[in-house]
Amino acid sequence: MGLGMGDQTPASQRKAAAAAGGGGLAALKLLLCVLLVGLALRLLDGPSAYLLSDTATATAAPEGEVASDGARVHASTVVSNGTMLITACFWEDEMTNDSRWSCDLSHGEWVPDSLGPSYTNGSCRFIEMPQNCMTNGRPDSGYLYWRWKPYGCDVPRFEGEKFLEAMRGKHWALIGDSILRNHVQSLLCLLAKVEEPTQVYHDRTFKSRRWHFASHNITVSLIWAPFLVEAEIFEDDDGRSTSELQLHLDILDSNWTRQWNSFDYVVISTGQWFPKTAVYWEDGVLTGCHYCKNKNIAELTFEYAFRKSLRKAFQFITSSPHKPVVFYRTWSPSHFENGEWSSGGTCKRTVPFKPGEAGDRESDKKMWRIEREEFAKAAAHDRSNNAGRLKLLDTFELSLLRPDGHSGPYRTYHPFDKGTTSKVQNDCLHWCLPGPIDAWNDIIMEMLEMN
Ligand SMILES: *[C@@H]1O[C@H](CO)[C@@H](O)[C@H](O)[C@H]1NC(C)=O
Ligand SMILES: *[C@@H]1O[C@H](CO)[C@@H](O)[C@H](O)[C@H]1NC(C)=O
Ligand SMILES: *[C@@H]1O[C@H](CO)[C@@H](O)[C@H](O)[C@H]1NC(C)=O
Ligand SMILES: *[C@@H]1O[C@H](CO)[C@@H](O)[C@H](O)[C@H]1NC(C)=O
Ligand SMILES: *[C@@H]1O[C@H](CO)[C@@H](O)[C@H](O)[C@H]1NC(C)=O
Questions:
Q1: 198-215: per-residue pLDDT in tens?
Q2: Pair 51, 148 in one domain
Q3: What does the buried/exposed string (b/e) look like for 381-399 if buried means 16 or more CB atoms within 10 Å of the residue's CB?
Q4: Residues 18 and 129 in one domain
Q5: How far apart (Å, rounded) are the C-alpha atoms in residues 33 and 147?
Q6: Are 441 and 163 in contact (CB under 8 A)?
Q7: Is the pTM of this model over 0.90?
Q8: Domain-located, residue 317
Q9: Same structural domain for residues 108 and 150?
Q10: Do 77 and 184 share a domain, yes or no?
Q11: Is 74 a known active-site residue?
C-alpha cells in the first residue's frame, strides 16, 4: 500500500537506499560537523569565551545541532578553563533510529507556523459558506498560523500532486455526518490546487455528493450517514425536530453499505448525532429510549447506542470480502463556552490550548474511549484475517486543543452588521476552512506514507 509511487518506497527500502548512497552523505555530514565545530570555536573566541574561561570547572557547551536531509549532526564540546576539547562529533539519522516511521501522530502540540494555510477563501471555491470564516468577516487570522507537531516527529504538509499521482483510478469515500462534509471541503481545497474536480452527483438535499478529478480519474464521494445505522430522522436543517428519532441499532444505513464494493479508501466516523432524543430498536423490537417524554419506555444511554452502532459498522467492515483501506476518524470535540448550541454558547478564543489547558472533558473522552475500545476489537479481528487495512485516524487530541478553530458567529456573512443587539447563533462544532482540520489531511497523507 502506501503512496507507492517513484521514490515513495517503503521504509525498509528507503533505509537500504540511504545506506547504499551513504558515501556522499557521510562526506556532507563530516563537512557540516567541521563547520559546526568551527562555529563553536568562533563563538568561544568572543566575550562568551571569556566568560566560559573564567569558570574553573569543566562545563559542557550547548550541543550544536544541524538538520540535513533528515539527519542530525551533533557536535559536543567541553570547555575547561579556556581549553576547549572537542569530545565528539557524531550523527544520528534514519539508519540508526527511524523515528518518522514509528511516531505517534495523534499525540503532540500546536506550534507557531509562519507559513500559514496552503489555500484561502480566494483560491478555493469548495469552501461552503458556514465554514468560510474569512469571507464571512472573522476579524482575526492568528488561528491560521499554527502547525500540528507530534512529539518525536513532524507531519509534512499535504502534497496535492503526490496524492493525486498515487491515487490514480481510485475511489475515496468520506462517510458520516456534517463533520465529514467539513473534512471533504478541506481535501478538495488541497487537491484543487493541482486539479479542479467537477461535481458529478448530488442528492436532493446536497448531503451526499460526488466529485471526479478527470485527468487523474479519481472519485471522491461524500456519503451522508450520520449514525452509520439506519435512522428515521424528523428534523430540519436548523436542528428543529418534529418527532423523536427512530434508530435501528442492528441495521446499517444502506446509503454507505450498498456502495461499499466500489471504494478503495474510506474515511468514516460517527458520534455527533447520538446525544439527541431517540427511540432505539433492535431486531425489530423497541428496546429503549434516550431522553423520551414517554416514561413507559426504558431509558438507555446514548453511549450504549453509540457503541452498538459502531460495533455493527466495524463488524460489516471487517467481515466484508471487499477490503478498502479504512480510516476511522475519532471524536471531533466542540468548544461551546457559557452555554450550548441552543443556549447562547460561544467560542471566542483566538489561540490554541496548550497541552492540558482543555480541562478534563469527561464527556468527550467517554466518546473517544468507546471508539478506541471498539476500534481495537475490530482491528484485532481485521489483523487475524490478515487484512490489516483498518486504521485509526486519531485526531481527537489535536482537535481538542483548537477552541479557536470553529466558525463561531462567522457561520453567516458578516453576522454583526445588523448591530450587536441582534442574537447571533454560534457554531462551535464545525471548523473554519482553511483551519485546524486541514491537519487531518496532513495526517492521512503521512499515514499512507508510513505504510
Ligand atoms: C587550566 O587547565 C590546565 C590543564 O587542564 C591546568 O594545568 C591549569 O592549571 C589550569 N589553569 C587554571 C588557572 O585553572
Ligand atoms: C529509537 O527511538 C526510540 C523511541 O524514540 C527509543 O526507545 C529507542 O531506544 C531508539 N533506538 C535507538 C537504536 O536509538
Ligand atoms: C476573502 O476574505 C477576505 C477577508 O478576509 C475578503 O476581503 C475577500 O473578499 C474574500 N474573498 C472572497 C473571494 O470571498
Ligand atoms: C477510472 O477508474 C475506474 C475505477 O475507479 C476504472 O474502472 C476506469 O476504467 C478508469 N477509467 C480510465 C479511463 O482509466
Ligand atoms: C440516505 O440519504 C438520504 C439523503 O442523502 C436521506 O434522505 C436518507 O434518509 C438516507 N438513508 C438513511 C437510511 O438514513
A1: 999 999 999 999 999 999
A2: no
A3: bbeeeebebbbbbbbbbbb
A4: no
A5: 30
A6: no
A7: no
A8: yes
A9: yes
A10: no
A11: no
Q: What residues line ligand 2, using a CB cutoff of 6 Å?
A: 96-97, 99, 152
- pLDDT score at 451: 78
Query: Longest C-alpha distance within the chain, in Å?
Result: 87
Residue 372, Cβ density class (10 Å: 0-12 exposed, 13-18 middle, ≥19 buried): middle
Can you tell me which atom of ligand 1 is nearest the CA of 82? 1
Nearest alpha-carbon partner for 283 in 255, 309, 251: 251
DSSP per-residue letters across 133-185 = TTTTT----GGGSEEEEETTS--PPP-HHHHHHHTTT-EEEEEESHHHHHHHH
Report the relative pairing of strands 171-176 and 265-268 from DSSP bridges.
parallel
Query: Pick from 332, 312, 148: which is nearest to 231 by CA?
Result: 312
Handedness of CA 439, 441, 442, 446 (dihedral sign): positive
Active site residue 334: no
Residues of the chain with pLDDT under 50: 1, 4-23, 46-97
* Cell numbers describing residue 86: 572537542
Name the catalytic one among 68, 76, 106, 178: 178
Distance 56 CA to ligand 1 centre (A): 8
Q: Catalytic residue at 417?
A: no
How far apart CA 220 and CA 223 sit, in angstroms, is 10
Select from 36, 57, 92 the last residue of a domain: 92
Total domains in the chain come to 2
Sign of the CA dihedral running 313, 397, 1, 187: positive
Q: Which of 55, 191, 27 is nearest to 125 (CA)?
A: 191
- Asked if residue 136 and residue 83 are part of one domain, the reply reads no
Ligand having the closest approach to the CA of 235: 5
Q: Does a structural domain hold residue 64?
A: yes
Contact 328, 371 (CB under 8 A): yes
* Ligand 3 binding residues, C-beta < 6 A: 121-122, 134-135
Q: Which domain holds residue 371?
A: 103-450
Q: Are residues 171 and 72 in the same domain?
A: no
If you take atom 12 of ligand 4, which residue's CA is the nearest one? 217
* Pairing between β-strand 71-80 and β-strand 64-68 as defined by DSSP bridges: antiparallel
